[in-house]
Amino acid sequence: MSSVARDQDVDIDLGQLARAVWARRLRILTITLVGAGVAFAGAKIMSPQYRSETRILIEPRAPAFANTQQVNDASAGPLMDELNIASQVQLLQSADLLKKVINDLKLYNLPEFDDAANGSAMSSILVKLHLKKNPLENPPEERVIDAFVERLQVYQVPGSRVIGINFTSKDPKLAAAIPNAMANVYLSTQSGAKLDSNSEATRWLEPEIEGLRRKVSEAEKKVAEYRTSHGLLQTNGTTTFPAQQLNDISAELTRVRGDKANAEARAQAVRNALSSGEASDTLPDIMSSQAIQRLKATESGLQSQISDLQTSLLNNHPRLKSLRAQLADIRTQIRQETQKILTSIENESKVADLRASELERQSDTVQATSARAGEDEVGLNALEREANAQRQLLETYLVRYREAASRADSNSSPADARIVSRAVEPVDPYFPKVVPIVVVAAVATLIMSAIITMLAELFSGRALRPVDASPEAIEAEAAVEEKHVPQAAPIAVAVRKPVQPSMLAVVADEDEPVAAVEAAEAPEDDNEFSIASVADYLTGSRAPLAIAISPTGDNGSAATVSLTRTLADAGRRVILIDMTGSGYPTELMVEDQAALGVTDLLCGEAAFGDTIHSDRLSDAHLIPQGQSDVRRAMRGVDRLSLLLDALAAAYDLVVVECGSADVAGVSRLTRSRDVEIILSLPEVEETIFVALMTEFQAAGYERVVLMSGGEGAKQEFGRAA
């Protein structure tokens, strides 16, 4: 019998559960051994299954007689990608390949691949009850293929171009023979596909090559006929006859014009020598004349004789006169010969001029002929391009035909794959593994037996114990569960902790004057000002800042936490700042009690964003009390107004829980009197309430709201008279 009352909160006694399992250890061990024995017997009864594997590497392969260039081209090509490997995996599982393997090994004669023909009694019963389809309705070939596929596994080895072929069978020889047979059929199929491609290529290329040969012959014949009919005969293979003739005439015309200019220059030189009376023996044309040379020699001889005789004879001597007469005659002859040379040179110039005129006439005629030939060459070029295209296509087809014809042999077209590991006959069965099965069954039986024992202990009530009723446990449980209880109900705080001074009391000015006013009357019903009513009031007032005062200590702070969660559940963005001395709101709202908070922020030991934490039971946020020294932090309390302004811009409502603070401390917190003052008194004490309300109203705070644990409408107190 359980000693826990029906209406008492209980918890699970883990120690009792462990003791119950230990007390029944012999029974659990016996059940475990029985389970292991059953697993061992079942594993021994099962028919052993053997598995073997063949591995195929997918890679491009060239024929053995391929030249170096072909091998380099094949190796430089792109490797097969994942899609190609996956396609080869599917090809290995194709129905045609499986049928060929089945027929080659005659698997249709083995009972292992047609269990439906020798069906069990249970299978027959299920078929008669229409709970299972009759396997005999399928054709025998389909049944064999289905049984084959169930035992087959084809997969790609991760991170490689290797394909594994696994097969499971009751016969170890068959388990090794089938993967090897599948690999051989696959390679044969791939090689045969290449042979078929080559054969098909040769059959298609033969008539195409014959047709191209005729087309090439006809195209070259048209080129020759067109060239003959239009006089486009080639001289050096690239230039036509009119073009070559025009080039020759142009070269000759240039030479003749040069000769003419040279002759005119020579004639002018001779004329200048004759007209000026200068010696003409320096001119090449005159000095090259033999007659001039003889006359010059005679003149020189006569001049020598005259010079010799002048020394012994007088000038009028007949001998001197005769010699002088001969000298004058010689000079006359020289002048006549020079004139003849000039006439000859002038004739050369005239002949060159006539030759140039004739060449110019011929050039005009040839240019006209060449122009017509250029127009004719347009058609010739078109015919030549057509002939060249047909010739190149024919040469390409001939190369392809020779390649395809050379690979007509079965050994000349290897498959783009090779076997890297053949299946061997397995020695040990793949299934069942007796030791793993027995171990797993024993562990599972042990765990299930222990679980059943613990469940029985729980259902009997022996593993349940009352929850600890200490004040700390009750308050912690209330803080966890208050998120889930109706907000209109009174707050679940059983006892009141001792009141600790607020953080603001550290810097409160005790000499600050407080106006004495007449105390107002306390409400008659303490349950009138509930948490829900205060939440509705704050929602309607749209106040950006609310300062909560809890004169009675942590039970008032717990009510402020409940108010904050109620506002968050209503959809408002709300944040609570823990300014209490005890840090009780922090204890209720966050898991980590050492979280950074307001004291760390004021001391400059934490960033602003690091001090904001989420409530563990609602969407509200919290700035905890922090871990820094309170007195040192409160020296910067004036910075709190900036903190509140920043938070008011980001949240709909900022709630500051000040604990048991007084008016002086609250006045240091905010300079404005336009705030909501909430007196959190779960249990209304008239003396405390009236005194606090009077003090705050006297200090200029017009909106002072009481929040108690009872239900009722919200009440706003005006300024005291």
How would you describe this structure to a colleague?
This protein is an alpha/beta fold and 721 residues long. The chain has 22 helices and 14 strands. The strands form 3 sheets. It has an 8-stranded mixed sheet with strand order 9-10-8-11-7-12-13-14, with helices on both faces. A hairpin with a 5-residue loop joins strand 3 (152-156) and strand 4 (162-169). Helix 2 (25-45) runs antiparallel to helix 13 (434-460). The radius of gyration is 62 Å and the shape is elongated. The protein starts with 9 loop residues before the first strand and ends with a strand.
Which tags fit this structure?
alpha/beta, elongated, 8-stranded mixed sheet, 4-stranded antiparallel sheet, 22 helices, disordered C terminus, 721 residues
In short:
By secondary structure, the chain is α/β, with parallel strands linked by helices.
The major pleated sheet works out as: 8 strands, mixed
Uncertain stretches of 5 or more adjacent residues:
1-8, 68-78, 468-498, 507-525, 710-721
Give helix % range.
Answer: 55-70%
Please identify the structural class as seen in this structure: alpha/beta
Mean pLDDT: 76
- Gyration radius from CA atoms, angstroms: 62 Å
- Strand order of the biggest β-sheet: 9-10-8-11-7-12-13-14
Count the beta strands. 14
Shape: elongated
Distance between the termini: 67 Å
Strand content: 5-15%
Number of helices: 22
